[in-house]
């Protein structure tokens, strides 16, 4: 019974023992052991066998798996090929992978475990032992490598040390090989795997452009060999040489900073630069980073414990890592300084001052007295610090604090009229220490600017403006803080007594005080005085300016027409020709705003309508005085209303015309005369009368003045009666009485003028 029969029997026995009737996958033709030569290449078939599925409809195709002991990637996973038959058969192959490199000296046997499962069936397992046998034959070099010319390899001169340049490849992989370079007088080497390596310290500039020919011998364990040649050509690469820009550098460092603190950093020009300290050889104080060139102290530098660390000289070498012979050196002179511990002390420690805003530039406010406790002869630096507002207002001239810019009180309002700064005093020790002296300067105001007149100095007011109406506002300006704090008063031009205008002392508003008349005065030029208030530390220091304010009175219709003469009397005969004008009224209006012609209307006295008006011309109709007719009057008192405007406001006046008609007898034919009684319509006459209605306060003031005058007169009468017996002094008393009356009258008038300005005053 072969292996296939034996496995089938075991599988059948196992199924019967378990009592199961499930079909099992069958591996047929799988040997137990196969032999493979170590020279077998990738794709070599190791074994081929069959896989049988009992279920004829096995889909999909089973995929057997393979595991190797010891683990290796030299074997491919089994490949399956389908065959058609009454049962489902598959052909399975196991081949060598592309990475296969069998070496009997390393592993002479591999155990392959296989497992295959058909869909719906029990899996089938198998085991295959692969034995590796050595090949009896010498190593075989590649043709080009073994030729007389050999291989050619080009490498740049800056290739990194020990970089593989070339690898010897044989026609048939073998194990136990050794590689040697015969008569090697080159800087190149070869390792046990056949790799040609660059020099351990890299190529030097002298190697650039040279070609090194290597004769390489490949030998196996049986001393059989093959040989070949490789020419390595070093290509020159232009690279800058290592160079320090300075030969010496002086470095100062403070003591007691702790260990591994950065002292300085050196930098050299070139490629692949590395750094090292070469002198003194036994230095322990400092260490340098080979890549960055940072120099650090290895332990804390303390001058009290180790005075010798005060001065140290080091020699630093920079070199090309790939070409160590390319190098340069630089000296370092390191000085350790003592630590500065005490800051300067200044007197005064705080400076407070109060100065006027017109303090000149360069004025010295204070001179500081400062000293450094660490060093009596240490130099001190002075600097002013502060905000944008205060920093540039002061300057330091040595220890003297001086005014550097105008101390403007007006612009310092936002800072409460104070300049806050700090004087920074710094010593020259290491590290530098500073002391700050606070400075607070308060600025007092100075009245520097006079008030300015407004740009608009012309106003207009209608002539019928009432008492207290606002004419306009005088907006004066003052650049001193508080800004535009101005007091207004009228210095002249307000008109006769009482004045026509008054001005608000704080607002600058001009109001109407007395009646205005365009016909009598059209323009008022007021002289307004502008005086600043509270702009100086001394309240007596004030500035003022006079401004001319022009007020134009606008004409309004406030005057009635005037007729010259207002009363006329005429004597005519009844036979006068009606086409002749009786009289032409001469009326005019003083208001300039009246542009329309005057209107004339008969409003009274026109009995029986005997008269008519054509404009300002009076005409009459024919008179008739028959004896048997209604008696007509012989005297007509005609009232003519003259109106200045058709729209409101309008004013009118009435002219009186008295016409005396003298009847004149004439021969007239007797006719029948029909008399018609004319219906007279009621006539409404509107008459406007102007009157003065003073304000209540004025009436009260006038009443009080009259009472005072009566009291004074009563007192004078009593005095006169008491001295009636003294005849010799009568004349003197009368003279004194006259003077007192004049003075009292003048006092009353002046009192009226002073108080009649629209403002309440405290007597």
Automatic annotation (TrEMBL):
One of its GO terms (molecular function) is calcium ion binding. PANTHER family: CADHERIN DOMAIN-CONTAINING PROTEIN, DESMOGLEIN FAMILY MEMBER. Keywords: Calcium, Cell adhesion, Membrane, Repeat, Signal, Transmembrane, Transmembrane helix. GO terms for biological process: homophilic cell adhesion via plasma membrane adhesion molecules. It comes from Mauremys mutica. Residues 273-346, 347-453, 453-567, 564-671 form the Cadherin domain. This is Cadherin domain-containing protein. It is found in: Membrane. GO terms for cellular component: cell-cell junction; membrane. Residues 1-24 form the signal peptide. The chain crosses the membrane at residues 697-718. It comes from the Eukaryota. PROSITE patterns: CADHERIN_2. The lineage of its organism: Eukaryota, Metazoa, Chordata, Craniata, Vertebrata.
């Amino acid at each position: 019974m072969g292996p296939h029969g034996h496995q089938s029997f075991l599988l059948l026995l196992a199924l019967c023992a378990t009592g199961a009737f499930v079909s099992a996958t069958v591996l047929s033709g799988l040997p137990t052991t196969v032999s493979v030569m170590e020279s077998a290449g990738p794709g070599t078939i190791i074994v081929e066998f069959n896989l049988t599925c009992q279920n004829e409809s096995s889909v999909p195709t089973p995929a057997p798996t393979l595991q190797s002991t010891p683990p290796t990637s030299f074997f491919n996973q089994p490949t399956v090929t389908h065959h058609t038959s009454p049962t489902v058969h598959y052909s399975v192959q196991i081949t060598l992978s592309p990475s296969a490199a069998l070496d009997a000296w390393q592993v002479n046997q591999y155990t392959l475990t296989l497992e295959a499962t058909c869909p719906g069936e029990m899996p089938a397992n198998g085991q295959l032992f692969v034995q590796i046998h050595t090949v009896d034959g010498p190593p075989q070099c590649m043709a080009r490598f073994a030729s007389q010319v050999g291989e050619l390899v080009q490498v740049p001169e800056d290739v990194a040390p020990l970089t593989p340049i070339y690898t010897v490849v044989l026609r048939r992989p073998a194990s136990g090989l050794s590689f040697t370079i015969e008569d090697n007088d080159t800087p190149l080497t070869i390792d046990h795997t056949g790799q040609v390596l660059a020099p351990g310290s890299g190529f030097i500039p002298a190697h650039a452009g040279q070609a090194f020919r290597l004769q390489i011998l490949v030998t196996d364990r049986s001393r059989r060999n093959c040989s070949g040649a490789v020419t390595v050509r070093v290509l020159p690469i232009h690279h800058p040489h290592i160079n320090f820009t300075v030969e010496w550098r002086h470095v100062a460092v403070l003591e007691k900073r702790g260990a591994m603190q950065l002292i300085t950093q050196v930098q050299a020009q070139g490629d692949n630069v590395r750094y090292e300290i070469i002198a003194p050889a036994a230095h322990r104080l400092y260490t340098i980073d080979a890549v960055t060139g940072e120099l650090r102290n290895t332990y804390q530098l303390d001058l009290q414990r180790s005075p010798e660390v005060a001065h140290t000289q080091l020699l630093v070498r920079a070199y090309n890592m790939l070409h160590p012979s390319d190098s340069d050196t630089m000296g370092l002179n390191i000085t350790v300084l003592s630590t500065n511990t005490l800051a300067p002390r200044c007197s005064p420690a705080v400076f407070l001052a109060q100065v006027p805003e017109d303090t000149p530039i360069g004025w010295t406010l204070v001179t500081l007295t400062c000293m450094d406790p660490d060093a009596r002869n240490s130099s001190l630096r002075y600097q002013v610090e502060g905000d944008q507002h205060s920093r540039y207002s002061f300057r330091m001239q040595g220890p003297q604090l001086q005014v550097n810019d105008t101390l403007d009180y007006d612009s310092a309002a936002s800072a409460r009229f104070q300049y806050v700064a700090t004087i920074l005093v710094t010593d020259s020790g290491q590290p530098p220490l500073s002391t700050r002296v606070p400075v607070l300067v308060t600025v007092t105001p100075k009245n520097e600017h006079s008030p300015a007149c407004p740009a608009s100095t012309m106003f207009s007011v209608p002539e019928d403006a009432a008492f207290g109406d606002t004419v306009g506002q005088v907006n004066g300006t003052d650049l001193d803080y508080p800004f535009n704090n101005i007091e207004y008063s009228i210095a002249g031009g307000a008109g006769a007594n009482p004045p026509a205008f008054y001005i608000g002392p704080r607002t600058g508003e001009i109001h109407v005080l007395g009646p205005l008349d365009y016909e009598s005065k059209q323009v008022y030029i007021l002289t307004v005085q502008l005086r600043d208030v509270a702009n100086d530390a001394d309240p007596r220091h004030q500035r003022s300016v006079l401004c001319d304010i022009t007020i134009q009175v606008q004409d309004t219709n406030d005057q009635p027409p005037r007729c010259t003469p207002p009363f006329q009397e005429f004597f005519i005969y009844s036979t006068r020709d009606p086409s002749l004008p009786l009289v032409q009224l001469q009326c005019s209006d003083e208001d300039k705003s009246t542009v329309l012609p005057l209107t004339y209307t008969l409003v009274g006295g026109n009995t029986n309508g005997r008269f008519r008006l054509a404009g300002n011309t009076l005409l009459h109709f024919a008179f008739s005085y028959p004896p048997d007719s209604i008696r007509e009057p012989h005297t007509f008192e005609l009232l003519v209303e003259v109106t200045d405007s058709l729209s409101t406001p309008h004013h009118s006046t009435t002219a009186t015309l008295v016409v005396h008609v003298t009847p004149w007898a004439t021969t007239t034919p007797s006719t029948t005369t029909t008399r018609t009684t004319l219906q007279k319509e009621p006539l409404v006459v509107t008459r406007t009368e102007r009157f003065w209605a003073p304000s209540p306060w004025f009436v009260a003031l006038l009443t009080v003045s009259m009472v005072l005058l009566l009291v004074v007169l009563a007192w004078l009468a009593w005095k006169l009666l008491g001295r009636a017996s003294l005849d010799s002094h009568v004349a003197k008393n009368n003279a004194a009485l006259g003077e007192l009356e004049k003075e009292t009258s003048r006092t009353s008038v002046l009192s009226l003028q002073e108080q009649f300005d629209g403002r309440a005053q405290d007597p």
